[in-house]
Every structure is written in structure tokens, then in C-alpha cells.
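ok so I'm stuck.
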Amino acid sequence: MNEQLLIRFATGADVPQVAALEQQIFSEPWTQTGLEETLSCDRHIFLVAQTAGQIVGYGLLYCNGDEGEIPTIATHPAYLHQGIGYTLLEQMLAEARRRGVVAVYLEVRRSNLAAQRLYAKCGFLIVGERRHFYRFPDEDALVMMYEKKE
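replied:
not stuck anymore, here's the structure
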């Protein structure tokens, strides 16, 4: 990537672009309303990755006490394998730690080996599975967990 990558907190102006990316990337995308509701809650972390004025990635992390959950994280298909997902995830986890979160959970499709490798690189471990978690197509999810290291 030739342009400078900026990771920042999302604003309301970012939501339509993030919603469009959700539609492009996922079979069960978040709605614009769902993204706006997440943005309106100050407990949650909603980051975007931006380059040349375009949002090329984003991630949400719900913070509830000392636990967190990542319901979605994605990189624009044209910008895959450039470290954007890793950078987003690391910054989300750093912000969660600053807020006192010590454990973060997520689900990932069993077939999504690239995402599993990314999560493992950031310290997530497989701790369980959820049968038939995903639809379109039907697939099991692996549950992964990250714990803050002292």
C-alpha cells in the first residue's frame, strides 16, 4: 500500500461506507441502523482504517465490564494481505485493554483459515465451537478468545 494508513474511531459520516462494505463482504451483513446503534454506545469500540480518504477496513468490539466481543472486523477485498486487519485488531485490543477488558471473544467460520491465522497471530486461542452458527451457507463457528497478558 503506497498511501498512509490511518486507524481512527469511526464517526457517523463513516457509517454508510462501512455498511456498503458489509454488504459487499458478508452473506449476513450488518445494517446501517445496527452500525449507527453501535456507534452511539460509548462502551463499544468502532474503528475504521482509512487510506486516501477511503475506508478500507473496520472493526467493532463490544466492551462489557472486563470482557469484550468482536462481532465484526473486515478489510476491503482490494486491500487484503496488506496488514490492515492485523493493525485494526491490534489497535482494538489495545483500546480494550485501556478500558480494563481482559478477555475478548469472537466467532469465526470454520472454513475461514486466513482469519483464524490472523486471530492466532494476535494471541487468540480456539476455546470452543458453535454448531450451525452461520447461515448462507450453513457452517459451524470456532469460538476464539484473547486474554490480556501481564
